Amino acid sequence: MAHATAHHRRRARSTGISLSNVSHGFGRTTVLEDVSLRVDRGETLALIGPSGTGKTTLLRLVACFEPPVAGDIRFENEDPWSLSTADRLAARRRLGMVFQEPTLFDTTVRRNVSYGLRLRVGWRERLRRWVTRLVDTPSMPAVDEALETVGLTAAAGRPADSLSGGEAQRVAFARALAPNPDFLLLDEPTSDLDPRNTAVIEQAIGTASDDGLGVVIATHDMQQAERVADRVAVLLDGRLIEVGSTDAVFTDPDDRRTRRFITGELIY
Amino acid sequence: MIETVPLLVDAGAVFDASVLFDASVGLVDLPFRPGYIESIIGVSLSVSLTAVALSTLVGLPVALAVGFTEFPGKRLVVALINTGMGLPSVVVGLLVLFAVSNAGPLGSLDLVFTREAMVISQFVLATPVVTGVSLAAVTGVDDGLRDVAHAMGGTRLDVALATISEARSGIATAILAGLGRAISEVGSVLIVGGNIVRADGTSVTRTLTTAIQLEARQGRFEIALLLGGVLVALVLVINGVVLRLGGRRY
Amino acid sequence: MSIQRRGFLTGVGITAVSLAGCLGSAEASDSSALGTLTVGVTTSTYDSGLLDVLHSAFESTYGVTVRAIAGGTGQTLTRGERGDVDVVMAHARSLEDAFIESGHGINRRAFADGDFVIAGPPDDPAGIADLDTASEAFARIATTESAFLSRGDNSGTHVKERAIWDDSEADPAGAWYTESGQGMGETLVQAGQRGAYLLSVRGNFIALSDRVDLDLFVEGPVTDGDPALDNPYGVIAVNPARHDVEYELAMLYVGFLTGQEGQQIIEEYTIDGQPVFYPDGLSEDPNFDQYTPSEE
User: Fold this and answer.
1) A80 interaction partners in chain B (CB closer than 8 Å)
2) Which ipTM was obtained for this model?
3) A16-262 under CATH 3.40.50.300, yes or no
4) Which pTM does this prediction carry?
């Protein structure tokens, strides 16, 4: 398996997310079958394939929503499901996730983006912060940075329901970014967006990657995959049929089905 | 307005709203001793607000638990909650009376004919309302939102708080509905409270509603209606304050 | 926004403290050094206003706090049976007898007599204005099938009404006879609106007379009318062997009611300038014996 070349990394630790022979299903339906995959920090992996082939399920498994029926998933060589609940939550906080729908909280943009930063606190600290908030608006540099990355610094005080769809998704992205995660998991983040907002998000992905984050982006947009990804994994009917560098997969794929999918022959 | 509300609650204090009240009521010659109306307003508010506060503390977690976990008999529980909203107040009063009466199991606590017993019976009446409406409110929150909270590494408490925050207008409605149920009922507080006033005319367990019933029974219908108007105005003020605090939602 | 929040927080804080104060301190200020007496009374007695005067005098003389709890006759006696009140005041002899015989009440004393009146629509459809006795009036009402409204709630008034029907040998059955199931005040109001005859406690009738359209036709002994309309009141202490009640305070209260001060208050009490009760203790032939219901 080809390794992505390292971009400058902020953290000394290496390794990343690895899936080994992961299978998953609901009831009698199998969604994923024997998937093995690896993503390192600093690299961007695009997960492509037709809708309904398990991309979302794969991302949810990586995000520790539930344990896989078979196989195991590891972060930095640690299986989160072997940890205590508290430790698993800590592991989950090292991931940022963006869904297809922005699903912002019913409050200001700033409070949305800072959500992840406000999770780690015990009730005493929570109470202290609530009281302080009545008198003053505390500043959070991580929030400002994240908003800058998506180009929405000016919108910080606006209520979430006043945003357009594209702006909302950008805020969702900033929200995932603000707690400084090790990995970003993006599930078709721009499929509902216009080209301008899509470009902003893709640029933000690039910035995040340059900062040393690993990115897994599920997308059905071939051009997007070509633009942002270092590596591509092709998922078809729950199986990983091909993994490789973007160039390799797009220009000279190993698998016949890959070629047909890329050229749009396989219509689902 | 916000400053006036807490003052209204403190029955012993002289309060600004009484000026407004006296001005409007001065047209009618009321046969009440000074302090009577203020004291019964105070009892109504203190009993009902306390009962609803307790109902919320119990009902909200129950609504979250019922709304977001699967368990056998869940439909039955929801049916029970909805049924509880329609409990006749006299029946609840009798049940509480049986419990706290001197002849009952809790007789040694000396709760019969006290405000504490009234809080208990109104708690029983208000909790299903608060729980049921909160349940509708929290289950109406987008699942995706809970996914977001969960994905960001939130504990179950974090997810619950995020849900409550999203559903806050529905929950406020639930609390106001519970308060409405409590403050306007007369059946249970009459039975467990006894409608008692002291010799100087200040209320021990007389509320606006039991006072209205007393006036109606004695044929003083206009006064009964006037007290009814006071009750409605009170509930209106409380609703107004809550809506105002809700900000631009409405 | 933050000013609003601050105000809200202040409001919540003050409300919480006030509520705590309201629930707690008020109860504490109720109990005096000598204790609290809980008296169960019927609504008609309570509404006559006599107790306000009696209890004020009792409280200032003895320093004991009195809580009067009004209810229907049945409800009042049940409260006595449950030990929720320390002493009961009623005016339904047969029900009081049952209360004593079942061991719930002891030391009954008669302390006052009121009376009943028969009232009805001013146009007097049954033509009872010329009659002097209750049983004659009831008989004529039944014969003419004029509208009659009963309490129908086993109160003292209802018990007396049934006794008069028995006496008159008339049958209170038919579309003209209805029951309100409510207290004296509500029944008076309803009778006034529907133009029906009724049996009423005198005190309540006087208190409402300017608000209901009813005329007085037959009166009781307070104004030298029909002795059959006598309404004797009794005060009964709840048996301390059955429940943890304030027995000494109850007997103190009974003593006050039957003593000089109480009896004088009862004699002097008026509603709209009219007498409502006559005291038992100040009669020429006072009955101070312990009352025991006779086995019949």
Assistant:
1) none
2) 0.80
3) yes
4) 0.81
